[in-house]
Structure formats: structure tokens, C-alpha cells
Amino acid sequence: MLHRVRSAVAHLVSSGGPPGSGSSVLPTPASPNPIAHPVAPRSPPAGAERGTRASGGAVENRGSFSRPTFLQLSPRGLRRAEDHAGRVVQSPPDTGRRLPWRTGYAEVINAGKSRHNEDQACCEVVYVESRQARMGGPGKSISDQGNQGLYFHYWGLFDGHAGGGAAEMASRLLHRHIREQLRGLVEILQDPSPPPLCLPSTTEASVSLELSCPGGSQPCWPLQKEVTHESLVVGAIENAFQFMDEHMAREQRNQYAVGGCCALVAVYLLGKMYVANAGDSRAIIVRNGDIIPMSREFTPETERQRLQLLGFLKPELLGNEFTHLEFPRRVQPKELGQRMLYRDQSMTGWAYKKIELQDLRFPLVCGEGKKARVMATIGVTRGLGDHNLKVSSSTLPVKPFLSCFPEVQVYDLTQYEHCPDDVLILGTDGLWDVSSDKDVADTVDKVLSSFEPNDPSRYTALAQTLVLGARGISREQGWRLPNNKMGSGDDISVFVIPLGGAGSYT
Amino acid sequence: MLHRVRSAVAHLVSSGGPPGSGSSVLPTPASPNPIAHPVAPRSPPAGAERGTRASGGAVENRGSFSRPTFLQLSPRGLRRAEDHAGRVVQSPPDTGRRLPWRTGYAEVINAGKSRHNEDQACCEVVYVESRQARMGGPGKSISDQGNQGLYFHYWGLFDGHAGGGAAEMASRLLHRHIREQLRGLVEILQDPSPPPLCLPSTTEASVSLELSCPGGSQPCWPLQKEVTHESLVVGAIENAFQFMDEHMAREQRNQYAVGGCCALVAVYLLGKMYVANAGDSRAIIVRNGDIIPMSREFTPETERQRLQLLGFLKPELLGNEFTHLEFPRRVQPKELGQRMLYRDQSMTGWAYKKIELQDLRFPLVCGEGKKARVMATIGVTRGLGDHNLKVSSSTLPVKPFLSCFPEVQVYDLTQYEHCPDDVLILGTDGLWDVSSDKDVADTVDKVLSSFEPNDPSRYTALAQTLVLGARGISREQGWRLPNNKMGSGDDISVFVIPLGGAGSYT
């Protein structure tokens, strides 16, 4: 079956650079062979990222548009990738070195919605040198001090809007911000005892204050909370998103990065997979045919109450243009005095209220599904960038309503023996708009069962099939694809991350 | 087995008033026989509540403490119910008329934690007369106009704190507020077509305004949302909680009602069960042995981020006494300048921060589990009342951080054929502190299987067993109870609502 499919879709799929043209070297592979490095080696391998402090570093201004480096596109390949008419699906070359964990990847540009593909992607193995090692005195090499760093594996999808700058910047720098946040935790995460609640400072504070306890002499807080290693990693990823967002704010003032992006990243560290999502991309694990959701979408609909609460508490953010109340349709001036359905920040149900003058303002949140908008402007409520985004025909900033914080879900890989068909799928909304979780799980089963378990190209073939399916390639063209009435006209990017089988990350 | 149990626990259980003393008449039974009235009868049955507008009505000042009227306690029974040493479990009399749906109920006072039992309960069948019928002109009777009212069945548990006034007031009035909110919906809920988004007013508005649309001429909101009948009922219940809370604010100024209460209510209307929870009580359905959670608890731990966000956006609510940041233990003055674990309103993980002077303030949220507190004062974050609650030794009000809004979950009874062993359990935290959902489900199975399916006393026996178990009665006393190390010292109240079998609500 597969051979027929392969030939049928061959003209729709392109795998990276020209055959034999340096496809054995990834531009920033971080490590020559993922199998070769244990989690905490004595010294970082050549090529592992270890240097510049991202938050302080200058942003490289590439000037022109680019695709993920691991695609290894030649100038001609780049032109093909930007062809809205052909919409060729792009994947890394299937010869030579592969992405870590044999990760599969595929992407396709939109059908003319924007000039460039505004999705970006990143896949890296990142070495985290401990802060203590970096602060070692002159004349001492890192290995002399016996400080062992940590590795994490990293996959990121960035779905840009209003320009590709933010997505591109995030794809190049977010993992560095994560590394910075983890740097101070290297020794703590490798120590099995619970993390210290308080760390000494180098300068001694000499303040003497009396602590008062509300309620007087009662011991109001006798115990201390136990904090897990896992929650430190979650906190590090959350703060890395915030630093990345602040970094963009500085650069947007310098006009390097424009627009905003959703960010969905997976971080594998010390046996656990951390999936962090800010936006409307989605991650699922397909394990033994079962679907395990690993993210939630953040949209004007799912975050309605958070947005309305902010508008209620800070009405100055609404200007005189918006009301924090939601109505099922626009209120008309002639309806003043009548009673209309509404809901506020505290309600999930609806009730009637008498229409007053301020209810004629535009609702902060309106519309449904893909048409839902905050301030009639943007359809996602979390992500990076958008610092200059204003309400159309207005100077009112939208950013105060957007959150840069991801929701992080943790999956412990040591709790289950995974087989080669168990995968983590990361996809931008272009995939999920037209494919349900079930569609994707069915395709996982169909494609992977048609390959040998050890065939290294099976995960890329799966990513390609998912993208082709979402693009709307019909069955007649040789593949039994998800039952789409119409393919997505959006950019589509998909990572397929195998969770077991190859043993490449033990 | 049961007879042995019955005799073994007989001295611990009391069923209402003295035998034969009027136990065939409930004080406010609302309907003589639940089977006799369909959902929308032509005219309300004698005794159904139909009159006074609760929000405007005066509060009956009972003066002294009371127990739910359906317990039909004599003065002597009331004294027994208030005996902390015996802690006799109270239930409605098992002769004569029962609670609607054969509902089981049991309660017990605490072990001296407060003087009175601060839990209260209510079980009613409530008739909702349509607003149109009420507005009928003089000389026309209700039945003349052909307007049919609606019934809803209602169960409420109210777990009081800092006094029993709020719980007692809520137990007498919340269902009336719900009735008021439903009154304008009577015709709409009985009309199968979608609810109208806008209702005409009696006075015509004559305003002509130009509506501007952000983004200019684009059709920014082409569609209208569909609103379901179900979401109207949810909105009505949500707003009834708010009106009840405002009602208490007015009465607390008049010093009638003191303290606050958690509220957990179930409303059965037109085939659906609406379970609304504000506080740390809990509802579960046990269906064919499976557990279906019907509520979530609202505590400083589960609502941490909501509370911290409010403190962050409105720092004036924290005075100079509290910080919105959370720390795993109290920060000491000598730790100034050191780095301590913390998390803010956006984080679920933890990270280190350098301790500054304002971090020495007491955290808005602290402690764990039952010891978690908001402002070192209160352990629940939703409920009714508490309008005068201040931080100990301070004038800072706690109320701005408490929400009176319930979360409403809906269960459609028509989607499943229920057997007589399928029940909805409502319990105050005294039950759930020492019994897990699984413990309760096991007890449901054990007790109900020892009775004939048609035995009307089986649900009261189950409620009694659950309360006895949570009170900590050991197995040696004749019953295989949940595996508690120690019984709850709190007030405990439990409703057992059968979902099928008797056909009493079709």
C-alpha cells in the first residue's frame, strides 16, 4: 500500500536540500548522535549550545524570510516552499543524519492567506552548563571542577500572525531562555533530595525586623510546603516564556520583530516530557491507540472569563470603545430599554438584562469558534509578541489582554513502556482545524503499521501524511486520509516525536 | 446483616419527632405526593411556594437556633441534636410522608468545634408562577389565562462558619431567589424553539445612534450565538446566588445574619439536574458503581491564581499587610537578599527570587490542605455572606477575595435509564474530609444491596451510614465502614437523592 502512496504523493512532498548536498550535517545539531550522549555527561559535546545569554544577546537580523534550518533548504528549495500554488509539503532530508529521536517533521505554506509561511519550528538538543561551573575562577577548566551539566531535548512550533518576525525570533531564542532559567537549577535537579526552599546569597543581609502574624500569637502557618523538582522545571519554562516576551518587547521597539506568535514547545528532561502551550496549537500523545491530550487551546472563547474579569477590574483598558459584558449578537441602538441576553465575568450561563447606553459599546469578546475575537482584533489570547498590536482604527492596545504564560503539562516517560508506535504529535492550528484527535490517531495507526518498526523514515512519512491530509489531498490521490470536507488553507506544521522503541533517549 | 447493624447503631441514630406525633405532615412539603404532580400542571398544588418576592421580603428572625424543618424535631429532639457528647445522627422520621423522591438525609453535630450545628439543609418542591400570570389584570384567575407554571425540585446544604446565621438564612431563602430568577423564563423554557436573544420592553426606546465597528466597514460579527435553554437555567441559578449574597449584605447591616456559609444545591428542572456549588462541599453521582463528580471544591489552593490575580491588579485590597506572591513558608527578615522559592498569579510551577522588603509581608494565600487560608483567615473562597469578615487584628475586609458565584454542572437524567441504586450524594466537608469518593461509592453499594429496591427507608439508612462512617464509628460496632483512621470532628450533613427506580419524577 505504501509504495503506491509514496508514488502518488511524491510530487507533493519535498525532503529538504538537494540530494547529497551536505544533508549529513545539521546546522545546529547540538550533538552528533543522540544515542551517544547520556543525560549528564562530563563535558558538553561539540556543537551543543552553551554560550551567549539570550536575554542580553543581540538579535541576529536575517533580513529576509527563512525556513527552519533543519530543513536544509537550498535557494531553489526555499522558493518551492514559498509557492502558494503548489503547496509542496516540506520535510528534512531523508538521507544522512536525522532529527533527534528520529523525530518526523512536515510543513506546508498556506493558500495565499499571507505572503510567507508564518509558522516556524525548532528542534534542538541543548546543554545546560551549571551556573557554578560558569563562575569558576580563571585557570580552572569546567571538567576540573566536576560540575556536570544537563541536557534537554527541545521541540518548538511557532504559529505567527501579523508578520513572521515574532515566530522566527521565538524559534531561534526561546530554548536559550529556557536554558538560562534552568542554569541555576542544574545541581538541584540532579540532587534527589527535595529542592532547598531558600538559597544563600553571596552578600549577607543585615536587617532585623519583627514579623507580625495576622491573628496575633497563633501559629498561623506552622508547616512548609514541599516543592518538587518537576515544579521547578515547570516554573523555569513559564518564566522563560515571560523573558522571551519581554525580549521581544525590547526588540519590537527596535523594529526587528513584528507581529506575534503562538508557541507550543516540548522539553524532555530527566525522564519527563514537559509540554508548554500558549495559543491555539495542540499536542496529543497517541499511545497504544489511546489519545492523551497534552495541551488546551487558549482562545477568546476558552479564556472569556479571564478577559472579562480584567476588563471589569481595569475598565480603563477598554477605553470608551468596549464593554466587558458579552452579548449573543451586537446590540442595536433601537433595542435600548429592551432586555437582551448577556453574561459577565462570573457567569457561565446566560440571563436577560435591560439594555443601557454603555451596552451599545462593542463587546470585549465576541464571535464563535475560529471567528471569536478579543477587541474585534485577534483570535488567540496567549502567545509571544504583539506588543504593538492595536485595535483597528484606534490607539487602544490589545496586549494587556494577552498572556504570554503557557500552560505546562507533564508526562512521565518512565511510568510506561512505550512501543515504537507511541508518539507525541505537535501541530499548529492548520492541522487541528480540519483533523480531529481521532482522525490523527487513525492516521498514526495507518501509517506506522505500514512501515517496519525500525524504519527510520516512518515518523517523517507520518508527519507528511498528516500535513497532506490537512491540506485536503483526497483519497483518490492514493491515500485514505482523514475525512475532510475541505482542506486547511492555513500554514500547517507538524512534529511527530516517537516516545519509545529506538531507545535513543535512555 | 442489616438487622444486626440496625440494632447495633440504633442508639446512635434518631429519626425525627416522637413516634406518631404529626410525622405524617411536613411543615413545607410543597406537594402531598411527588408522583401526583407532573412537571407543568394546570395549577399549583396546595402548599407549593408561590408568593413573596424573596429579595424584597423581610427576613424572619427566628431568634434561637434551629434545625431543618423536615426533621420535625420536638424541643427534646432539638436538645438531643445539639448534644456534642452523644453526637446522635438525626434523620427525618421514617414513618408517614417522606421527602420528595424518597430522598435520604442524615446529619450530626460536631465534637464541640462550635456551640451549634452550623450546617443547615433544605428540601423543597417549588412552584414557579410565570410573570405574565402574576401580572394578569384584576378579575382574572391564573387558570383563566392558560399560563402554566413550572416546578423544580430543590435540595440545599449550607455549611456555616463564624456563626450559623448565614447558613440558616440561605436555607430558608435561596430557593426563593432561584424561583424569582426563573419566573421570567417560564414560557421560554416551555417553548421548544431557541430562546429569544432580545425581549421587547413595555416602553419603547427612541434613540438613534450610529454604531461603529472596530476595523471599519468589515462585518466583524456576522453571526449570532445560539443560547440554550439549559444555559438560561444555569444563568438563573448563578444570579440567584448573587441576589442571595446581596440580600445577606443588607441583612448583615441589620445584624440579623452573621457569618458566612458554603452552599451546595441541586435543582431538578425539566429532565435535568443542575448541581451548583460555592465552597468546599461536594456532590457525586454513583451510577452502576461508577463515580461521576458533580462539583469541584473552591479553596485557597484551588483558587490560588484567581486570588493572586486580584491582589496583583488591586493591590489596595492587600493593605500593607499582605503580598500577592506565594512562598512555600514564611519568609524571615534575616533571609532578606537571599533567594527563595515563590510563585505568582501566572505560574503553576515554582522559581527562585531574591527576597525584598515587601516579600516579608504575609502571603495572601498560605498553607496546605485543610490548613490553607486566604489572608490567614478563611479556608474557603466561595460562598454566601461573610460581608463583615475582617482579617484578625485588622480592619482589612476579606470579602473582596470571596466569590458568591457557584460552578454549575448539569446532568441530563433522560440520557440514561437509572436503576434504584443510582444516587446523587450531596455532603458537607465533614463527610469528604474522612471519606473518599470510593469509600462513599462502596458504602452506597453495601447499604442499598442489603435493602429491597422498593424499601422506602433505604436512602435514609444510606445517609445515616455515611454520616456514622464519617463520625468514625468503628467496624466492631457492627458495620463495615469506610476505612477511616479517625472520624470527622466537624458537622456532617448528607443528602442521598435516588435518580431512578421509583419513577416519582417522570
Automatic annotation (TrEMBL), chains A, B:
InterPro entries: PP2C, PPM-type-like_dom_sf, PPM-type_phosphatase-like_dom
Gene designation per UniProt: PPM1J
Domain PPM-type phosphatase: 102-499
One protein family per Pfam: PP2C
Polar residues bias (residue ranges): 63-72
Source organism superkingdom: Eukaryota
Any Gene Ontology CC annotation: mitochondrion
Designated name of the protein: Protein phosphatase 1J isoform X1
Single GO MF descriptor: [pyruvate dehydrogenase (acetyl-transferring)]-phosphatase activity
